[in-house]
Amino acid sequence: MSLAQNETISGGESVSAQNGDGATHNLQGQRLGRKGQATRESILTAALRMIEGADDAPLTLSAVAREVSVTLTTLYIYFPDLGELVLAALDRVMHAADAAFVDRLRTRWPDETLGECCLAFLRAHLAFWRQHARILQMRNSHADAGDIRFLAYRNRVTIPIIELMVMQMDARTESVHTPQMHLATVLVMGFERIATVTTNPVFQRAMSDRGVEDAAGYIEDMISAEAEMMAVMITRQRRLAVH
Q1: How many other C-beta atoms are found inside a 10 Å radius of the C-beta of residue 57?
Q2: For the chain, which domains are there?
Q3: For the segment 170-185, what is each residue's pLDDT rounded down to a tens digit?
Q4: Cα separation of 230 and 224, whole Å?
Q5: Which pTM was predicted?
């Protein structure tokens, strides 16, 4: 049986990470009081400001410590290395992902406007990536380099999106070994790759070198092609679900 049109899709956890409201203890196991919470918050805020600011200088713990006017010793109480600081900053960023684009998947897209819904979702996803490109690129570069923490993080925030895409196909998510899970995984990998490539600063220079003056139009064409492929796959799986 297929889901009724416009039905709200239940399931699919939030893509935000578990500790987005802030840690309650420091690395020494001591409970953070008001001052400790404020210090940790100021470090995170400064790190995000430096990551997402106009200055593309490499992020370092010493630079963050200078920005917040704390010693490296103090910073290490909260974040033992740069990776942990970036992961905490990612938590903060990913809390905005649900409202930015993921929630669009939670309501079943009507068959008659499926293509438009796919395109709107992909545009919202790309807009989120453009807003947070540098930290998301950092996440992927650390994961691709084999940092298990970032690999686990990327999986944790991607799996709920895959599951919601499966539910758009009127299928279940009890097992990862289903055609729908495989198709949804391929779809998510596709639009994640488009966002990764097109928000890379090297991409704009490459487009210019190739004589592509309308880079925005080129990106829109790729997004439209992805939306068309997504709509075709969802439609086919919905029809199979009826039988």
Answers
A1: 8
A2: 34-93 (1.10.10), 96-242 (no CATH)
A3: 998 777 789 999 999 9
A4: 10
A5: 0.84
